[in-house]
Write a structure and sequence with these properties.
The complex is a heterodimer. Chain A is α+β, with helices and mostly antiparallel strands. Helices cover 25% and strands 25% of the residues of chain A. Chain A has a single domain, classed as Sandwich (Immunoglobulin-like), CATH 2.60.40.420. Chain B is 19% helix and 22% strand. In chain B, β19 and β20 form a beta hairpin. The two termini of chain B are 20 Å apart. Classes of the chains: A alpha+beta, B alpha+beta.
């Protein structure tokens, strides 16, 4: 039972499933209460009609948005840019195969974030954010994909809520083997699980502490001490 | 009472209470003569069956992928499969991802450099310079965030051993979408069939996107041991080259001079990596004018855009890749998220010489999923080409019900016409290939007529999924009049509901319940209070106890 609750909690924070659902709710609420604000008035269409999918020899950008404000933002609070390097040489710790130069990113609510994703490997890598509002980002995601040795740049605008977004490479086993990061907007709402250098794995812990043998040995030692010490004290020196 | 009399009383009780079934036969007969047979005792009732919800047998083809269509100028044949290949990907594999319209490329899911096709060297109207890129993907692997395997590819309901596969280079996510754990459709077992034209200049780049070192070895495909620069080109780490490390790539060069059905696989720790799924069929088609071949046939099965040579001689073409699995090996990658631990478990702990093979697949699936996508659909009076590869560890005794196909090539080498053998069981040892001609003329020899004719390994374990049948590599040759609009075969035997449940392959559901009621369901454990047996056991205990007291009293 406890395990199930823990699992649900982990899903809520690390899987993005519930956070996505929450987003949809937020979006709806704001739609009812406040009009959509735009940086440039002539770009009235949803941004994904313009930018859904740009692909070239270097890779692709999906759901780029440098102009349409989330419904809960009055204006862009700041322009930030990150240079993220990725590949096997950025693997964080022993047992990680892949990694990124930054596994923890921070930004202000309603900031416009430009990411330049530089792939130092010879294979594809991705920098994918999940949990963004779906009315602005189809599937709730913003996605950069860089071919081997290539760099890809893209921009997106985050909403106003304090939230920690999952950032990862969605190629099979790349997140699992090190390419997992988090983007904290407005300080975030806590750390996600299994972020290299930041948080412990939810399962398959990196270091499970005592082995069963050590634990049993320690328990036995305590048991013997409890039995022997009173006897020794009764007899006295 | 004295100890002695207590002992005697318990001894007498022991004899009297001995259950009749345990009496020596002469005693039973004599007792029956005196007292007649024992009274009737009702056996326990059958266990009630657990409720189950079968999966959809044949998912609806909402995208219209089954119909024949022309995309760009590529003609793609109709597919009668419940899970047809993506026709946009077929078009991109035929024309090259560099030559199709952007919309086609997007709907194919491939990257622009997945399969590029260039110059026509011999001026016969088709490209002869081909560059193919393959990645390495893990299916049903471990995750530090999830107790379930990730990037799931079930081979049968609920059966998800871990796999490593070569995969076409696709843009975007590995799963269907962010909410799903299931692998996207073209990320699957088996590694794709590679199809090239004889004499083409082929470059195959292995982009090692996996966390283990890998290579590609071209088994039976004409290739030089080293490439023009002297770099190893045979994929064998103990003879020709270092393995390709995670994140790195290597390009292999081939200009195959001979046509035929061949094989490719990883040659790093081959006893492990081949059995993890890093193996695929490699077909070299005969050179012909204007011969645009479908460079990849993802998942094997029907070739929806066959080569010129095949179109001239055959009505249809199917690639059939058989593969068996020892779950003890394939589950190692699910037991840890640390490649160092996985390496140690695989290389130093797992022992293939002690292996027993549990799962049997054709084109990456076991029955009943084979009926969704690996049927050989035919019509009467056709000639159908079957290319068969046994990529498994054990031999394959492939039997075709109702048909006797003819072997036209062994291991990619044609058999001269007078030496060709027509039979109904084809024995393939590990890594062997045969080309078969399936003639559907109803003459009592080549075909017995229309129907749903099973096609399966006749080594009986091959028809099971970890010992539970029907499962394994059972598929079928199906005639059009026995196939529904959606592609599902119109079987007239047992209902399939049971087979489309996870519980059935866990051994939790009785086999014949759907039509035999609970007649063959397991009996409930006997719960009646066996007074006599209990009294007998007490008497035995008392006899032993009093006997022991008597013995101690003497000393």
């Amino acid at each position: 039972m406890i395990a199930a609750v823990l699992l649900a909690a982990a899903m809520a924070t690390s899987d993005g499933q519930t956070t996505d659902a929450m987003d949809a709710g937020h979006g709806h609420m704001h739609h009812m209460s406040s009009p959509t604000h735009q940086v440039e008035s002539h770009q009235m269409e949803p941004s994904h009609h313009h930018h859904a999918h740009q692909m070239n020899a270097d890779g692709m950008v999906m759901n780029a948005n440098d102009s349409v404000l989330p419904r809960d933002c009055q204006e862009i609070s700041e322009d930030v840019s990150f240079e993220i390097m990725a590949g096997t040489e950025f693997a964080h710790g022993p047992g990680d195969t892949f990694g990124m130069s930054q596994h923890n990113l921070e930004a202000q609510p309603c900031s416009r974030i430009t990411v330049t994703f530089m792939n130092h490997d010879d294979i594809r890598h991705q920098w994918m954010v999940h949990g963004l509002p779906r009315y602005l980002y189809p599937g709730g995601m913003f996605h950069l994909e860089a071919n081997g040795g290539a760099a890809i740049t893209g921009t997106f605008i985050v909403p106003s809520d304090r939230k920690t977004y999952l950032v990862h490479c969605d190629m099979s086993q790349h997140m699992e083997k090190g390419m997992k990061a988090q983007l904290k907007v407005g300080g975030g709402d806590g750390d996600l699980w299994s972020i290299p250098g930041i948080s412990e794995n939810y399962i398959h812990a990196n270091d499970s502490g005592l082995t069963i043998g050590q634990a049993l040995g320690a328990a036995l030692l305590a048991f013997v001490v409890v039995l022997v010490v009173p006897r020794w004290r009764r007899k006295g020196p | 009472m004295s100890r002695r009399s207590l002992f005697v009383v318990s001894l007498i009780l022991t004899v009297l209470l001995t259950p009749p079934a345990w009496h020596p036969e002469p005693v039973r007969i004599q007792l029956a003569r005196w007292f007649g047979p024992g009274t009737y005792v009702s056996p326990p009732p059958s266990l009630p069956s657990a409720a189950f919800e079968p999966e959809t047998f044949c998912p609806a083809d909402l995208a219209g992928w089954r119909s024949s269509q022309t995309i760009g100028d590529v003609t793609i044949r109709a597919s009668r499969s419940c899970e047809p290949d993506n026709p946009f990907a077929v078009a991109a594999f035929v024309r090259g991802t560099n030559n199709v319209a952007e919309g086609v490329l997007q709907q194919s899911g491939l990257t622009p450099d997945a399969v590029t096709k260039g110059e026509d060297l011999d001026g016969d109207g088709d490209p002869d310079v081909i560059h193919l890129r393959l990645e390495v993907a893990e299916l049903n692997g471990a995750s530090p965030d999830n107790t379930e395997p990730v990037v799931q590819f079930p081979i049968a309901p609920g059966v998800k051993p871990g796999f490593w596969v070569f995969a076409p280079k696709m843009a975007g996510m590995a799963t269907e979408n962010f909410e799903s754990l299931r692998a996207r459709p073209m990320l699957r077992l088996p590694s794709p069939v590679i199809r090239v034209e004889q004499g083409d200049r082929i470059e195959i780049t292995l982009e090692n996107s996996h966390y283990m070192p890998h290579t590609i070895h071209f088994h039976g495909v004409d290739h030089p041991f080293v490439d023009e620069s002297g770099e190893g080109n045979d994929g064998v780490p103990i003879a020709s080259e270092m393995p390709v490390m995670p994140g790195r790539d290597r390009t292999y060069n081939l200009t195959p001079r001979q046509a035929g059905t061949m094989f490719y696989h990883c040659h790093v720790q081959p006893h492990l990596h081949i059995m993890m799924g890093l193996q695929g069929m490699f077909v070299v088609e005969e050179n012909a004018p204007d011969n645009w071949v479908q460079t990849l046939n993802v998942g094997g099965g029907q070739v929806r855009a066959p080569s010129k040579g095949v179109q001239e001689e055959y009505d249809r073409e199917y690639d059939l890749h058989y593969f068996d699995i020892d779950t003890e090996l394939n589950e190692i990658i699910q037991s840890s998220n640390d490649p160092r631990v996985i390496t140690d478990e695989m290389h130093n702990r797992y022992d293939i010489t002690d292996a027993t093979f549990d799962l049997f697949t054709v084109n990456g699936r076991s029955f009943p999923y084979t009926f969704r996508e690996s049927l050989v659909s035919v019509e009467p009076d056709e000639r159908v080409r079957l290319r068969v590869l046994n990529g498994g560890s054990g031999p394959l005794a492939l039997h075709t019900h109702g048909h006797k196909p003819t072997i036209t090539a062994f291991d990619g080498v044609p058999v001269p016409t007078p030496a060709r053998i027509t039979r109904d069981v084809f024995m393939l040892s590990s890594a062997q290939r045969v080309d078969l001609t399936l003639d559907t003329t109803n003459d009592g020899l080549h075909s017995f007529g229309s129907g749903i004719w099973l096609m399966h390994d006749h080594q009986q374990k091959g028809t099971t999924t970890d010992g539970i049948g029907p499962g394994g590599n059972i598929s079928a040759i199906v005639y059009g009049d026995y196939q529904g609009e959606d592609g599902w075969p119109l079987t007239q035997g047992m209902p399939y509901d049971l087979f489309f449940t996870e519980a059935y392959y866990k051994g939790l559901l009785p086999l014949w319940e759907a039509y035999a009621g609970d007649s063959f369901s397991p009996p409930a454990p006997a719960s009646r209070f066996h007074l006599r047996t209990l009294a007998f056991a007490l008497a035995v205990g008392a006899t032993l106890g009093f006997g022991l007291l008597l013995l101690r009293g003497r000393t």
